[in-house]
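We close this part of the discussion by returning to an individual protein. The encoding preserves chain order, so positions in sequence and tokens coincide. The sequence in question and its structure tokens are set out directly beneath this paragraph:

===
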Amino acid sequence: MLFDQGLGDLFVVRVAGNVLDDHALASIEYAVEHLGAQLIVVLGHQRCGAVQAAKETIDSNAEAPAHINSLVTAIQPAVEATRGADVEATVKANIDNVVEGLRSSEPVLKKEVETGAINVVGAYYNLDTAAVSFTEKKKE
């Protein structure tokens, strides 16, 4: 509904905190190689609970329980890069980190980005206004 598309028009991979793991990367590579996806949008959102939990866990020098710690570890670079800032700045830094991770992911995505076959962009969803703003311009 967010992008006014019908069922099956978008290939969506959802994971808390937009973290990248082998399963998420494999799903995205599948969409690119087998479904012809040409645009990958990393969509973070206002008041992201996963990012907030990562900030709180890291700031308190605690360890998150069970597998949630893997989310905290993946989001940690954004938390460290935005120390003292609000959660929204950390969400946006995390989006940028994931975009860069996708653009440099070998062997599939990096090659596709370099040849211009796909674009990887970041976007931020404001829950209050329902507006999506892109965090940077598409890579040309």
